[in-house]
Give the backbone structure.
Amino acid sequence: MDYLNWIQKMVTVRDEMRSLDSEKLYRYYPPNKGCSAEDIFQVENRLKITMDSQYAKFLKCADGWREFFASISLLGTRELISGPDMEMAKELLKIVHPLNPQLGFAEDELLPIAVDEVGACFFVITPPINGENGEVIWFAGQEVERYDSFDRFLSAILQYNIDDLEESFKGQESK
């Protein structure tokens, strides 16, 4: 996936949403600037993991993105090491993991990568499957959706934003 192109599309959609959001439903933040290879290395060493290659490549273009979909923030390298969003996601994972025995992964194998501001939902990435990329799993109490790669997750988030723009914001114009 061309991450810079994806980011540009997402920014365009979010900018249009902001311009039509007369009720101030959301807050609109730009993506963080990309991280370095050293930042990825530090996360891997601190957390004793090998980061999913797609996620790592994306972080080099945008090292996290606050509220990139509704109130859900994509965690960057600093948040992965520590911070309130990561702590909340870890606590949610401790609660949700035992309730979802079908996951096929131990709790400590799942890396939280996104969380909403109130803890209603969060996303984790699994270790690579069959030598490929990991899956991204969306939780809201239970498993909501599973994406077979980080790239598929990003494609879905872009589409959710486009749908939100079309249904919630452009629909307001015609009323």
Notes: The mean pLDDT is 93. The two ends are 37 Å apart (CA to CA). The chain has six helices and six strands.
